[in-house]
Automatic annotation (TrEMBL):
UniProt source species: Alkalimonas cellulosilytica
Protein name: BamA/TamA family outer membrane protein
The keyword Endoplasmic reticulum appears for this protein: no
Coiled coil start-end: none
Pfam family, any one: Omp85
Listed InterPro entries: Bac_surfAg_D15
Protein localization: Membrane
The keyword Membrane belongs to this UniProt entry's keyword annotation: yes
């Protein structure tokens, strides 16, 4: 017994000596410049939805915290890109923080070093997280141009604290009503495999989706793999000047599988190669409301090869696309190039080629000013078919005037040639021109520009909605529609307006309610002098 007592005392003494050697770390600048520092321990500090010590809390916030299951430590651990005993990499800590912040059930995440042990050259890592409210009576709505769209249901984005998502919806929009049941797991059993199951029963048909994927979840991921199958049956509608002009039925079948591997990976850049195949056919049929014919059926099944090159240069910014939330924006180059071989032995209508490319690059113009850009090009060649091409370019310039106000300018351009009839671009309503009804103009070519003044108030409604304001000017045009009637307008449209933004800051969906009143500056027959828009979306 005495021997055991002495042994216990010795262990306690050794632990005390070791603990005294570990000091609080105020900044990573205090770490020594050596590459063999190891991670001794990982601690978790998961916070509930609301901080009940803050002023303004009442029974609703207490009930929300009481009824909410906080994200489990094991769920957080499964997303970590490091483990106890690993060599410390500050880049991995930052990448893990971004990965955690991308999970919709977390409002914020922070991964930091809490202690440094100089004798053993070890560190303790602290993972802090702040939950969103994840059990939602789901209500999305939109009203513009005299058309109301909404969805009601229930969604759980953090089922029992595991990060899994379950959703049941009833939705009505301008084209259909229906029910939706879906389940998704962003990280199954900590394997970095994700899965999604979805079934929808709509007034114009049914659809389903099954997908399982192990993506390049980190910049140094050595490989990726994915499989997806999807079927959609729906009724498509065409519009002119915001009025319905044609209807027809559509059936779309999609199956894709791919395998990818890393050609080169470092801390801040990667090159990857992916190869796969897809089966893609779409068929169209008349119904009782078909008046102006149908698009031709098509099958674009293909084998494809894709090259990816990306750089990791992230910054944590605020008030760019949202407000009062951290936004991780990559200022490195991101480029993909895909070459697909359309082949008749897979079912394609004719042999041919598809070439597509995407380029993303963001710049810091000066302190407080940023330019975000994204560009897409797609070209298709098939025997006995016209050459089809699409180009799109998106530019967003944001300049912070003060901590509570900013200016934003946006320009979007789309140019198409010999496009498929059911894929023509639409302009109006939420698609660029807020003073005009949905689907007001249509064509193969489109441009839209807008300037916006944004004001972020310190106000909060019951600590549930943060309040912002916006004033805007829009201009745009869609044209070159081979199927439009001679009465259709393709003039340049202008509009001005303003509105309120209500951000559900503590919601896992992060939606923002837009309440806008806009006035068109061009007189058009049958067009209301004012347009009121109410909708929920994720951007300012």
């Amino acid at each position: 017994m005495r021997g055991l007592t002495l042994l216990s005392a010795a262990c306690l003494l050794a632990s005390a000596v070791q603990a005294s050697d570990c000091q609080l770390l105020e900044s990573t600048d205090a770490l020594p410049e050596r590459g063999d520092i190891r991670i001794r321990s990982i601690d978790f500090d998961a916070s509930n939805v609301f901080d009940l010590d803050e002023p303004g809390t009442f029974w609703l916030h207490r009930f929300a915290n009481y009824s909410h299951i906080i994200t489990r430590d094991e769920t957080l651990r499964q997303d970590l890109l490091f483990a106890e005993g690993d060599r410390l990499s500050l880049a991995e800590l930052e990448e893990t923080e971004r990965l955690l912040r991308s999970r919709r059930y977390l409002r914020e995440a922070k991964v930091s070093i809490s202690h440094y042990c100089s004798e053993t050259h070890q560190v303790d890592v602290l993972v802090e997280s702040w939950d969103n409210w994840s059990l939602l009576p789901k209500i999305d709505f939109k009203h513009e141009g005299g058309v109301s769209q909404y969805s009601i249901g229930i969604a759980e984005d953090n089922l029992l604290g595991t990060g899994n998502q379950l959703q049941l919806d009833y939705a009505k929009d301008s084209e259909r009503t229906g029910y939706l049941l879906s389940f998704a797991s962003p990280n199954m059993f900590g394997s970095h495999w994700s899965s999604a199951l979805q079934y929808a029963d709509n007034s114009d048909g049914e659809s389903y989706l099954f997908a399982v994927e192990r993506p390049f979840y980190r910049i140094s991921s050595p490989w990726a793999m994915g499989f997806e199958v999807q079927k959609n049956k729906e009724e498509l509608r065409e519009y002119q000047r915001g009025e319905e002009s044609n209807r027809y039925d559509s059936k779309r079948h999609w199956l894709q599988s791919y395998l990818g591997f890393s050609l080169y990976a470092s801390t801040y850049s990667a090159q990857r190669l992916l190869l796969g195949f897809r089966l893609h056919d779409q068929q169209f049929a008349n119904n009782a409301d078909t008046q102006n014919g149908l698009p031709p059926d098509r099958d674009l099944s293909a084998l494809w090869l894709e090259y990816q090159w990306l750089q990791s240069d992230y910054q944590k910014l605020y008030q760019i696309n949202q407000f009062n939330r951290t936004e991780d924006i990559n200022f490195g180059w991101q480029w993909t190039l895909q070459l697909a071989r359309l082949t008749d032995w897979l079912g394609a209508d004719a042999n041919g080629w598809q070439l597509s490319s995407r380029l993303e690059k963001n710049w810091t113009i000066k302190p407080g000013s940023w330019l975000l850009t994204e560009h897409h090009i797609k070209q298709q060649w098939q025997s006995d078919e016209p050459s089809r091409s699409e180009l799109s370019s998106h530019w967003l310039l944001v300049h912070h005037l003060t901590e509570q106000s900013s200016l934003a300018a946006r320009f979007h351009l789309e140019l198409g040639r010999d496009m498929y009839r059911d894929q023509l671009r639409q302009l109006g309503g939420d698609n660029g021109m807020r003073a005009y009804p949905l689907y007001f103009q249509r064509g193969q070519k489109l441009w839209v520009a807008s300037g916006e003044y944004r004001y972020y108030t310190p106000w909060s409604i019951l600590r549930l909605f943060d309040v912002g304001f916006a004033g805007f000017v829009d201009a745009g045009r869609a044209w070159d529609d081979p199927w439009q009637s001679s009465e259709a307008s393709d003039k340049v449209l202008f509009g001005v307006g303003g509105g309120v933004r209500l951000l559900s800051k503590y919601s896992s969906r992060g939606t923002m309610v837009h309440l806008d009143l806009a006035k068109p500056l061009r007189s058009e027959p049958g067009l209301d002098s004012w347009q009121f828009r109410a909708m929920a979306k994720r951007r300012f």
